[in-house]
Every structure is written in C-alpha cells, then in structure tokens.
C-alpha cells in the first residue's frame, strides 16, 4: 500500500513539474528545462556527485532520438540512472528509493522571482504631496491622478477671456435694454 502511495506522489510531482511554466503542457511529458528544474529543486543536483551537466546527459540518454520531451516511464529510467550517482554508498534499489523520497510531494518553487522594491527613495519619489510646479496640478489631494485634465490646458470656447468676472452675463444685459 505504501509503495503505491509513494508512486502516486512521485507521479503528482512529475505532473506539477511537467506543466510548470508552460500553459500548453498536459502533464504527461516533461521538457529538459523542467527536468533540470525538478533535479535542482528536489536537491538531486548536489554539485559534487550530480551536476547540471549529468542531469542533461541523462535526459538526452533516456528520451527518444527525435523527441524533445520525456514521458513518465522515461522519467523513471532517468531516476534509475541518476540514483547510484547521487547516493554512492547505497545499493541500486536503496539509492532509487532515496531519490524517490527527495522528489515525492514536491512542487516547483519560485525562488529568485523579482519582488517590488519598497525603499525610502522609491517612497520619496512617488509621494505626490511633495510635487511642485506643473506636476502638482496633475494630482488631487488624495494623490490620485486627475487624468487628461491634469495634463493639458483645457480650452473653454465660450468667447470670454479666461479671467473675465462677468462671463455669461451678456444675455441679461441685452434683455434689460
């Protein structure tokens, strides 16, 4: 029972890594990039016994000649190839079990993904309350942009000069006469 549960977890990890970063992937086949990511994230690559080059060589060895991806069966063959290299002191079966334990239940990590830098300099540069001159006109008191009204001189074609106080009173003056 434990054997089938372990294989199910291994299959789930294979599927998660197979679809990682590829919207069209079905989870039935894994490309070389995702195979290398699986080996790196699950600590199969240790830098001494197993390197990135070893992982690439094993991938090329187990895949079909014209294919660019490996199936789950080929994935298991690749693990059988890497296991004795990774765990040198163990028998083939023990080494394979150890490699399976490294992979089971794991998913791709997003280490090194760029995060938004929140520093004092950024805060100071984006604080609209400290803007001066024409830039100040582009934002309201809450710091939200005014849109087109804040960027352009909107012309009112009323026929009156901009600072004329009695705008709109012409009709009333002509009626009085």
Structural description of this entry:
Helix content is 49%, strand content 3%. The termini are far apart. Helix 1 packs across helix 2 (32-41). Strands 1-2 form a two-stranded antiparallel sheet. The protein has nine helices and two strands; from the N terminus they run αβααβαααααα. It folds into two domains: 1-103, Recoverin, domain 1; 115-155, no CATH class. The protein is rod-shaped. It has helices spanning 2-19, 32-41, 52-62, 72-86, 92-103, 120-125, 133-136, 148-151, 170-176; strands at residues 29-31, 69-71. It is mainly α.
Instruction: Tell me the major beta sheet.
Output: 2 strands, antiparallel
Roughly what is the average pLDDT, rounded to an integer?
81
Per the principal axes of the C-alpha atoms, what is the gross shape?
rod-shaped
Provide the structure class.
Answer: mainly alpha
Report the sheet-strand fraction: under 5%
CATH class of the largest domain: Mainly Alpha
Spans of at least 5 consecutive residues whose pLDDT stays below 50 are none
Total strand count, please?
2
Subcellular location: Cytoplasm, Cytoskeleton
Family: Belongs to the TPPP family.
Region (Disordered): 126-177
InterPro entries: EF-hand-dom_pair (IPR011992), TPP/p25 (IPR008907)
Task: Give a topology summary.
Blueprint: H1 2-19, E1 29-31, H2 32-41, H3 52-62, E2 69-71, H4 72-86, H5 92-103, H6 120-125, H7 133-136, H8 148-151, H9 170-176
Antiparallel strand pairs: 1-2
Helix pairs in contact: 1-2, 2-3, 3-4, 4-5
Biased composition (Basic and acidic residues): 134-154
Subcellular location: Cytoplasm, Cytoskeleton
GO molecular function: tubulin binding
